[in-house]
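User: We ran a pulldown and think these components assemble together. Before we commit to crystallization trials, I'd like a predicted model of the whole complex to look at. Sequences follow.
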Amino acid sequence: MGNIEKNLLEETAAWVDEERAKTDRVQKPWDVWIDAELGLRNHWYPAALSRQIEEGGFKAITLLGENILLTRQDGKLYALEDRCPHRGVRFSARPLCYTKETLTCWYHTFTFNLDDGNLRTILNEPESPMIGKVQIKSYPLEELKGVVFAFVGDISPPPVGHDVAPGFLDDDAVVYSAEPYVIDANWRLACENGYDPGHQFIHNWSPFSIKNEIPMSFGWVSNKESVLRTTTYFDSDDGPKGFTRKAAETNIVQEAVIPMNDGSLVEVKLPAAEGKSREELNEIAQYAHSCEVGLWMPCMLKVDPWPADPAIHFESYVPRDSTSHTYFQFGVLKTNDKAEADEWMNRRAHEEWEIPTVEDFTIDDAFARKELQKFYSEEDGWKRERLYRPDIELTMWRKFVTKHARGVQTTDHTKGFFSRKDRE
Amino acid sequence: MGNIEKNLLEETAAWVDEERAKTDRVQKPWDVWIDAELGLRNHWYPAALSRQIEEGGFKAITLLGENILLTRQDGKLYALEDRCPHRGVRFSARPLCYTKETLTCWYHTFTFNLDDGNLRTILNEPESPMIGKVQIKSYPLEELKGVVFAFVGDISPPPVGHDVAPGFLDDDAVVYSAEPYVIDANWRLACENGYDPGHQFIHNWSPFSIKNEIPMSFGWVSNKESVLRTTTYFDSDDGPKGFTRKAAETNIVQEAVIPMNDGSLVEVKLPAAEGKSREELNEIAQYAHSCEVGLWMPCMLKVDPWPADPAIHFESYVPRDSTSHTYFQFGVLKTNDKAEADEWMNRRAHEEWEIPTVEDFTIDDAFARKELQKFYSEEDGWKRERLYRPDIELTMWRKFVTKHARGVQTTDHTKGFFSRKDRE
Amino acid sequence: MGNIEKNLLEETAAWVDEERAKTDRVQKPWDVWIDAELGLRNHWYPAALSRQIEEGGFKAITLLGENILLTRQDGKLYALEDRCPHRGVRFSARPLCYTKETLTCWYHTFTFNLDDGNLRTILNEPESPMIGKVQIKSYPLEELKGVVFAFVGDISPPPVGHDVAPGFLDDDAVVYSAEPYVIDANWRLACENGYDPGHQFIHNWSPFSIKNEIPMSFGWVSNKESVLRTTTYFDSDDGPKGFTRKAAETNIVQEAVIPMNDGSLVEVKLPAAEGKSREELNEIAQYAHSCEVGLWMPCMLKVDPWPADPAIHFESYVPRDSTSHTYFQFGVLKTNDKAEADEWMNRRAHEEWEIPTVEDFTIDDAFARKELQKFYSEEDGWKRERLYRPDIELTMWRKFVTKHARGVQTTDHTKGFFSRKDRE
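Assistant: Here's a predicted model for the assembly, 1272 residues in total across the polymer chains.
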C-alpha cells in the first residue's frame, strides 16, 4: 500500500474549505464520482436475498437502471434482462418457465436459455431463423451468505470477494439479513452519508440514543494529521478496495459552545447528555466509538463492532436508478460454533443487532440521504456544495473511486443491449 | 384490388427477420405509422356513445390530443373546441347554453354558434367588433347505431362509412355498446395487438378460456404463402380500407416443444389443454377460430363471429393523446326482426357477447397493450423492435396505412386553431 | 399624477381588439409582466400570518420560488434561506435553534446568525476558516397588523407601505385574516382575474349571490371614455402604486340578449334575477357595486366596502412558484374604538366578512384562476390570448407594472445565492 494515504491526501486536500475559492475554475479530481449517477459498471452488487426467491419463483429488480428478472429453477439462480427483444415487454409481467432451462415470453412465446439468454426456440415458430441468433443479456450471479450478488458489466467478472467488505464472506461469518428497502436518494449520497465523519450529529435524535441514554457526539473532525493517523487505505488488486478508520482515535467532539453577541458562551447540550458529567460522557463516547468504520467499493460500509461486540454491521447502498437506491443491512457474528450460529440467526441477531440498528438507528441515515437528494439532483449540488475540513475523507473517497472504478454506468446501458449474433 | 397483397408483401417482407439486419441503415417504409403517435388526421372516429349525452347535456372528451366539448341541444349533437379564444379557459368547466343555438363561456360571456363555432355575440359587449370575426373549431359529427362519430381534420369529410369496418352501419346491424374506457397505451400498439396473429397466446390465461376449458393456440404463424392465401386487402376509394383474414385457414399452432440440453424434447401444455387429446384440441381450435378477423382504417377491428355465431365483435382504439386511447367495444347482431333486435339489446348481447368478451377476454389485450407502452414510448421501440416472421402482417398494415392515411395529427393541431377571419 | 391615465390608455389601447390583428408582429409593451412568472423582485410580500409562528416555532414557506424558514425567537421574527450552504439540506427538515440568536443545521452543526445569515460557528469545528466567511440569505421582515411581510430582493428595501394597498396599515385599521391557502395558478392570473371588469359574471353562481338573491351582472364594459372617467392611477414615489375604479360608475351590464337565427332575440336571465323587475335589478346592482376596487403593486386587491359597509376587503396573490400562489384574504374595519375593534376580531368579521366573502364568494375566483393556468402555462396563452375591449384595464395594468416594477424574479434567484465573503 505504501503511500496511498499521503498521495490521496495531497491530491484532495486542496479541495476542501481552505482553498475552496478556486474550485469553480478548475476541473475537480473526482469526475468519475460525479459521472457515476447510475452506479459503477463492471462491479458486483447485492441484488436480492436468497430467501426472496424460492424454487420456481421470480423477482423483478432494477439494478443500475437495468431491469432484471431473477428466478430459481432446480435450485439454480438465474438473472436475465427483463425485456423481450421482439417487442420489448417485460417477462416479469407474467413470468413463464416451461422447463428448468428456459424462460418463455408470455406475449409471443419467444423462449430463451436461462443461463446465457440465447433464443432457444419460439413455440409458435420453431423454424425461425432468429433462433440462436438473438440474445438477451444474462448476468453473472453468486449466491453467498444468503445474499444474491449480481455482476453488472461487460468484462469477465473478478471474484465477488473483490467487491465485498472484508470478513463478510469468511467461512465463520454468520450473516443475518434485514429486509432491504428502497430509499429515494442517489446511491452516492448514501455512501457519503454513511462514512461521513461529521454526520453522527443526526443520531443524537435516533431512538437508539434516546432509549439507551447514549448521547452521540457533535461529529468527528478529521484534520490532515488525524486522517493519516486513523485511516488505512486498501488498493490491492487481490482483494477489496476501500478505507477503514478507527472511530475512537478520531477527534470526537463531545462539547460545543455558541458565542453570543454579548461575548458570553452558551454551552450546547445534546438530548441524551442532560444530567451527565463530562467524565461520564467521555466514557460513553469511547464505548460507543470503539469500532472500526470502513467503506468499500463499490458501495458497502462495515462497522465493527456495532452496536456492540460481537455484532458486526455491514450495509450496502445498491444503485437502483438515478434517484433511488436499495438499502441492504446485515448483522454478522463470527463463529464456527453451529449452535451459536443458529441462535444468532434465530434470536440474537434480531435482538442485539436488528432492533437497535435497523429499527432504531439507520432510519435517521435514510432521512438524511433523502434530504440531500434535491440539492444534488436539481440544484447543481455537486458544483455548489461548500465542503469543510472534515469532508476531506469524502473527497479522498471520491478520488479513490475515480481512480479504481472499473467503469461508469450510463443511460445507454439501461436501455438494454440485444446481442445480435447475426450481425457480427 | 388486383395485386395489393402481392405488392404489400414484397414491399414489406424484407423488413422482418430474414433481412432485419439491414434495418438500422435504411429508412423504414412505414414512416407515416411511426409519425402517427397522435393519430391519423382527416378521419372519422368514435367519439362517444349516444347514451352518454342526453338532451341538454355535455361531455368533454380528448380526441387525437384535441379537447372537445360535445352537447345535445334540441336533439341535435354538436362538437366544439373546448377552449375559449379570449383567455383559453375550457367551456366544459361550467358549460352554459342559454339557447339551443349557442354556447356561452362562463368567464366573460363570449357566445358562440353551436354549429360553426363563430362568435355570435358577447353578452356584456354586444357591439364588439370581434363578433363574427372570431371562431372556434367545430367538428363534423354523425350519430349512427348509438355511436357519435367525429371527424378530426381540415378537409371536406368523406362518408363516415369509409372509416368504419364493413357491416357495422348496415341497416340490419343491431349494435350493443359496452362502456368505453381509457387504456394507458398508444393507439397504434392497440391496433397491432388486436390484429397480431401471434398474440393469441396471451388468451390462454383469459377467464373466457379457463372457464370454458377452451385452450387458445400458441399463436398463428403466417408465412408469405399463407398470408397470400388467407388475407384480403381492401383499398377501394368508395369504401373502408383494411384487411381481413380467415383465422381458421392460417397456421394455428396447437403443439409446441422445447428442446432440452440433453437432446430430449419437452412438450408444452397450455392451461386449458390438460387432459385433452390432440383430436379434441384440434376440434376446439377449428371451432374457436372459425372467424374472420379484419383491421380497418383508422383503428377498428372486426371479428366475425365472436365469441360464437351469431355475435359479431367490433372494437375501436381511438387515439386520446400520445400515451392513451379510448377503447370502444361493440357486440353486433344482424337481424331485421324487431323482436329479436330488442332481445339482443336487452339481454342476449350482455350474456352472449359482453360477459365472455368484455369481461373475460379483452382485459388481457388491455394488459398487453399497456406492457408495450414503455418500450415504444421511452426506449426507442419503433427502431429497436426485433420483428419475426408472423409480424409480416403488421408491417403490411403499417405500409398500408402509410400509403392510405389522409394525414397525420401533430401537437400543433392539439393547441387549437382559432380562425381569425379579420386577418384573412 | 397628471396625465398617467391618458398616457397609459394611449399606449395600451392599440393592443385590444380593435387593432389586435397586428399584435403578432410587434413586441408587446408589457414584457416585464410576461417575464414576471415568478414574481416581481425587490418588493414586499405577505409571507405568513403572525399567528402561524409562535415563540420558538418555525414555518417553512416558498416565496417567489425561494425556500425560506421563518422562526420567532425572543419575540423577534427571522427569515433565512432554507438551505445549508455546506451540502444543501433544508434546515426546516429538523429545525434547531440552540440560542435565541442562532440557527444550527441538523446535519453537520453549521450555526448561522438568525439576523444576517452569517456563519457564526460550527459546533464540531469551531476553528474552521469558513466561520464569518460563509453566509446564507436573510430576508428583511416587517410584522404589521398580524401579517408577516418579507422583502425578496437585493436592494435596500423601501418602506413596506409602498407595497401595500392604502389604508391597510393605518392606525385605525383592524385587520382580520382568513387562513391563507395555496391555489394552483400563476400569481399574475390571480391579479388579472381579481381586477378584471368582465369577470364578475362568474359570481352569479357564487353561494353569496344565490343565498342572498343578489344577481351579479354580465360584467362591466369599460371603453376608453369610461376608463378615464372612473379610474385613478397612483404612481407617486412616496406611496403605493396602483389603480382604483369606482365600480358603480362603470358600465355595469344588467341585461343581455342573444340574437337567434330566425331574427328573434332571446333575453338571458341570470340565476338570481328570476322574478325580479328591471328596477329591482338596477337597485341591487347599484347597491352591490357601490364600492371602489383597486389593484396595487406588487399583488394586492382592495374592495371598499365589501361585502357591505363598513367592511373593507383586501386580498394578496403572493407568488409561490411558477404554477401556484398563496392566497391571503383580509377583512378590515376602520375604528379607533377598542371595544368595537375587539368585537370585529372576535365575531363580526367572521359573520359579516369571512362567511359571505371567503366561504361564499372568492372560491369562484380560485376556480377561475385555476382554469386559466393550462392555457397560459402550457399553450402559449400570453401570445395567443384574444383580448376584447373591456380588457383594456388589464393591459393598462400590465403596462403600469412593466414601467414601475423594481425587478423580475428569475430561476437563478431561486437556486439561492450563497454570499461568499472570502471571494469578494
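Residues 338-359 of chain A form the longest helix (22 residues). That may be worth checking against your pulldown data before setting up trials.

User: Thanks, that helps.
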